[in-house]
Amino acid sequence: MEHDVHEVKAQWSKLIAKVRTGEHIVITGAGVPIARLVPIHSRRRRSPGTERGTMWIAADFDAPLADEVLGGQEARRSHLPSSKTFRPGSTTNHCRPRK
After folding, report:
1. Rounded distance, CA 57 to CA 7, Å?
2. Cα gap 49→52, rounded to integer Å
3. What is the DSSP letter of 26?
4. Whose C-alpha in 6, 35, 43, 60 is 20 to 30 A from the C-alpha of 87?
């Protein structure tokens, strides 16, 4: 809902009451949006599990990507050690644990 600056000044209390119900108000000056009046906190509390069943992860989400998808990305990372060669505490690794 849009309101001109002069209208906002005249009806401030009514607009604040609308914002408390969750409404967003755009304040305009000469027809150009200049500010938005929105509630700080939503009245609706989030509860765990309300989105259950709306998303899924494919069984092969971490499978290696095909060469045509990678487009040469692996060649740029070939200088890094693979996770199979990483040995914690080894001095030849690029990544050492902090002491």
Report:
1. 50
2. 5
3. E
4. 60
Q: Name, in order, each residue with C-beta under 8 angstroms of 37's C-beta and a sequence gap of 6 or more.
A: 8, 15, 19, 24, 25, 26, 27
15 three-class SS = helix
- Whose tokens are 């998808």? That residue is 69
Alpha-helix residue ranges (DSSP H) falling in 1-81? 5-10, 12-20, 67-70, 73-76
- pTM as predicted: 0.41
Task: Compute how many other C-beta atoms are within 10 angstroms of the C-beta atom of residue 25.
Answer: 16
CA 91, CA 50: separation in Å to the nearest integer?
A: 48
**How far apart, in whole angstroms, are the C-alpha atoms of residue 99 and residue 5?**
60
60-89 residue pLDDT tens: 888 888 877 777 665 555 555 555 555 555
